[in-house]
Protein 1
Amino acid sequence: MLLVLAAAAGCRSNHDAAPPPNSSVVQPPRASAQSPAPLATPLREVTVTDATGATFSLADRMKDVTILAFWASWCGPCQAEMPLVDRYAQSEQAARIAVLAVNIDENREDGVAAAAARHYGLPVVFDPDNRAYEALFHSQDAEIPAIAVVSRDGVDSERGYEDAMTDVQHIAHLRELAHAHLH
């Protein structure tokens, strides 16, 4: 099941916008007592890196429900959405939900620097080849920001940033997306 919802603003992977100045640190993944749930998605084969350059399977960081927030340093709407995704991730209490930021900058070092400059508290992984995006959205031409909710139900996805919503509405929307997949 793939549900695609369009939103108001987004970027394509053409790198035509400069990132605004900001501050951040890439945090290591949080330890979890539960092991990730088995995934019936093509993400089993997708590898990403962390800020140190260590490579791992994206599926290793996923739980029963995982929100993947795709972004890039050069994408203006991403700069508006990512702090909200980070706030949601920090407030999520359900142990079976994971929230990961997936940076798709072609130059991985640009993504690492941008994530470090923004002090995100959620785990940030780097996928400069867009393998995770392609597996979920069936397109190599990334339209970001994009959210994918991956669960045993399949994948629900949204592209773009709806700037008519308030910050509180955005965070509530992310929570609704994730919790709709908990069983």
Protein 2
Amino acid sequence: MTRATLLALVAAPLVAPLRVMRGGCVPTLAAPVRAPDAPPELVAIWLSQPDYGWGELAHIRVVASTNVALVELRVGPYGRALTKHEPGQFSGVYRFPFLPPFVHPRYTLTFRFVARTATGTATVRELPVALH
């Protein structure tokens, strides 16, 4: 490993661990307060179930830092903004596509959450979701 590589690793911002909850009651977590020019941070994601069937509806809650203006949920080429309820608190729903009964493979979709500040700075976190 070169000196430049080591310096780049040391200078890289640390990503805080993402708290992921599946099922159960909707948690109440406070959004961490951040300055408007600080990088955005995704703190926690709650999904209404541990796994889903084709055609089912997923309820989603996201807690982000208070400087996040928008959280977008992307699945493949599609994306939608989650509703902002108060600083750092977002929610939304996603309906998994319907497939004919003879084409029901077990599959994993990747939910990609993009958090953006008002200045456009973004952070991305991915979450696999099992379909049966």
Protein 3
Amino acid sequence: MAGRDFVARQCKPQSGGIMDKIRALIVDDSSVMRKIVERSLRQAGIELEKVVEASNGAEALVALQNNVVDLILCDINMPVMDGLEFVRQVAKVESAKGIPIVMITTEGSESHVVEALSAGARGYIRKPFTPDQVKEHVLPVLGKKP
């Protein structure tokens, strides 16, 4: 997705969700994975008002300047700016403080997860994941019961 800062789109109205509609920022260098994350959120019963996509941490920082979001789901391994550095940078952005960040990773190393949590992430999901796992990890950071 070179040359594109971010993608934001309004989502179609849904019914039957388990909570108020949320605005999500999904950060992953794979456009396919971004779609999988979005679909998993929907299948988990999380209604999306708006989805903003970014292909790396630098694009995600720009997206945060231009969009209000309630949740960030972020990969760890990405070019330009990885997820760990993105979490560190978000902690410095006053308007972004308090936005829950959930890391999505294939990392086998616990040290990456611990580092992300220490930097400000509130949870993590390991790839591959199911909608039930997304629900289990995302709802608590949004203050809801799974």
Protein 4
Amino acid sequence: MSTYPRAAIEVCDPTMEVKVMLDQSTAAWNARDLAGFIACYENSPETIYLTAAQVVIGYTAIHNMYFERFAHDDWFRRGSLSTSLLRVAPLGTGYALARGRYLLNGDVTHGGPTSGVFSLVLRQAAAGWRILADHTF
């Protein structure tokens, strides 16, 4: 057993910073601002978006997927987006796992409200927290 003091590993709680990032992204979605919405994703060929229906790999492919959606007016008739962050857990220095819920409050003629859950693996970059993996169901 060592009697030397161990250096404490400081892992900060990123909850507030992640909440701000999600709030900014949500506001951009509702303003039909694709660049603002997708700014929360890590610009990397390894970034992944995963749903029950599809797997999209790479920032450019994720951007293109959302570009296709944003190009159609019907997409926004699905309603405005809201998110609620349930928990952010640090995964070590500079990484975190965020879990939450989303709601698209669309009208009945466009499928009605859509809701689900998400988990995000995040990395703290110079520009703030960025999504490495988005699992939305």
